[in-house]
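Private note to self, pasted from the team thread so I don't lose it. Backbone tokens:
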């Protein structure tokens, strides 16, 4: 299969997985055991937003904007977008260190699959001719 076509298919799959994960996260409390669901709800209702929460939210919005730019750039076969995607992957992994998280097995599986697809995207970007100069695929 053509590397450029593979890259585009992986990008579409990754975006779909992200949309499914975000949608499922709204219902994730119903998929958890009662004790964990109560703990997760308590995390949201403890205090008003702290400065660190607002900072993390601002960083997350920046990450989201960068993600959209990198996906569009990769879809248009731009080499800089591969570096942006790599940087955002590292930053996204850093977000997991910010606080403890509890997720259902289904959401964790979708997240793991999305991370594997992201790895495949990076492998195609840096290990194939997908972003090398040449005749662009439209």
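Design output:
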């Amino acid at each position: 299969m053509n590397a450029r076509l593979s890259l585009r298919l992986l990008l579409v799959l990754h975006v779909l997985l992200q949309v499914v994960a975000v949608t499922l996260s709204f219902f994730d409390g119903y998929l958890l055991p009662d004790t964990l669901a109560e703990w997760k709800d308590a995390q949201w209702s403890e205090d008003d937003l702290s400065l660190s929460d607002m900072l993390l939210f601002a960083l997350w919005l920046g990450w989201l904007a960068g993600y959209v730019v990198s996906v569009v750039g990769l879809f248009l076969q731009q080499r800089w977008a591969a570096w942006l995607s790599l940087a955002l992957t590292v930053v996204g992994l850093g977000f997991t260190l910010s606080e403890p998280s509890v997720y259902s097995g289904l959401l964790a599986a979708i997240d793991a699959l999305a991370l594997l697809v992201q790895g495949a995207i990076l492998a195609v970007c840096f290990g194939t001719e997908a972003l090398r100069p040449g005749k662009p695929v439209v």
